Amino acid sequence: MNTIAISSSLKYRELIRKAISDLEEIGVTALFPNLDGEVSKEDLDIDLMKKLEADHFEAIESSECLYVICPDGYVGTLVSVEIGYAYAQQKPIIFSETPEDLGLQAMASEYINLDEIERLKEISPDSLS
Questions:
Q1: What tens digit of pLDDT does each residue of 64-88 get?
Q2: How far is the CA of 23 from the CAs of 18, 19, 47, in angstroms?
Q3: 88: how many CB neighbours lie within 10 A of its CB?
């Protein structure tokens, strides 16, 4: 794969940054819009939330797959929405760990732990469909 959208709760911001760095080192473009936007919860309103999600949907459309970073299986509401969008776009969905939710597990194309992230380079999106 050459371009991957990443989805994760921003509480894992440092894991997201490391994943992006690790992927870039092996020649994979990793997309996570607004990672450094530093938006506080107090600044969030419905219009900003719509923009943030639209940006992530665009990243998903521009990618070959969605990689979900979900330590201990935690997937928040907005990440679940992004997973649903990727699924509707027929993009492979790869999780770093098994999500807690059985419905999300049913959408998984593959599981690749963060320690093995270089495997993403070798995967063909067609092999995951």
A1: 999 999 999 999 888 999 999 999 9
A2: 8, 6, 32
A3: 10
